[in-house]
Design brief:
It is an enzyme of class 1 (oxidoreductase). By secondary structure, the protein is of the alpha+beta class. The protein has a domain at 83-277: Naphthalene 1,2-dioxygenase Alpha Subunit, Chain A, domain 1 (Alpha-Beta Complex). The protein contains five helices and 16 strands. The strands form four sheets. Strands 7, 8, 9, 10, 11, 12, 13 and 14 form an eight-stranded antiparallel β-sheet that branches. It has a three-stranded antiparallel β-sheet with strand order 1-6-5, with no helix packed on it.
Length: 281
């Protein structure tokens, strides 16, 4: 598999809150890297051969690139909005393609079956019509007008509600979810999935949230989101094929898969194929 098109992208490699001089040894697209706090107080990331990688710090995470990024990290304006709680959820290692991890995050239909009585429940299994587009100006995949009944849409929610969603894919291994904010109607809660590709079939997933919730203890917010993703992990680690198919004929989509179809088309357009399967085997 070629990885050239993805080399110049930004990837999460650690939490700012856990950054120290001792460093964190990890990997990025098959290359061993070390993330540490430099003598000047700034984050440093070095590759296996000792070369310094491009670094930026945003959304509570250290980001690095194995190549030469030609653009800044994507913007999440809500991260700077007064009154929001910014939640570093931590990291979950998953034995799956980093692209599979993002695609699963975009999937609505699995809510009643994988996240039963939290994000979905039978008999409320129908995925209503929604809009999907590749926004050319931003070069991002967006899904809007997504609505789904949820018994507990957020830790702050009391009782079931019909939740409205928007999905945004600004980078090949990152996705942003905007969803109904129970305590503050008219605003959106922001839940993100930042994925670090360790290898084509292994990744570290770093969820992060920007919420309007002044009541729930931080530990409970983190535990709630970790519970959701751990439920997803068993599904992800058993998907066949392990890599994400980009050939439209390899898997048969349904109406609920419109976002996945657009995401795969966008990946193929840009040659984002690290963690993908291009032809049937």
């Amino acid at each position: 598999m070629t990885r050239n098109a993805m080399i110049d992208e930004w990837y999460p490699v650690g939490l700012v809150s856990q950054l120290d001089a001792q460093g964190r040894k990890t990997a990025l697209m098959g290359e061993p890297i070390e993330v540490r706090l430099g003598d000047d107080g700034n984050a440093k990331v070095t590759g296996g051969n000792g070369r310094a990688l491009p670094v930026c710090v945003r959304y509570g995470h250290v980001w690095a690139s194995p190549g030469d990024p030609q653009k800044a990290l994507f913007a999440i304006p809500e991260a700077d909005q007064p009154g929001r709680r910014l939640v570093d959820v931590g990291v979950v290692r998953v034995r799956c393609s980093p692209l599979r991890a993002v695609e699963n995050f975009l999937d609505i239909a699995h809510f009643p079956f994988v996240h039963t009585d939290i994000l979905g429940a039978e008999p409320h299994t129908e995925v209503q019509n929604y809009k999907v587009e590749i926004r050319e100006d931003e070069d991002e995949v967006w899904a809007t007008q997504v609505r789904f009944y949820q018994p507990q849409a957020a830790k702050s929610a009391e009782g079931g509600i019909t939740t409205e969603y928007m999905y945004r894919v600004p980078a090949p291994t990152c996705s942003i979810l905007y969803k109904t904010c129970p305590p503050r109607p008219g605003e959106w809660d922001v839940i993100t999935l930042f994925v670090q590709p360790l290898a084509e079939d292994l990744c570290d997933v770093w969820p992060w949230m920007a919420l309007f919730d002044d009541e729930t203890p931080m530990t409970d917010l983190i535990h709630f989101q970790q519970t959701i993703f751990v439920q997803d992990r068993s599904i992800l680690e058993n998907q066949i094929p392990g890599l994400l198919p980009l050939d439209p004929g390899m898997e048969i989509p349904t109406r609920a898969d419109l976002t996945s179809v657009a995401y795969r088309r966008w990946l193929k357009r840009h040659g984002y194929t690290y963690g993908a399967q291009l032809v049937a085997q």
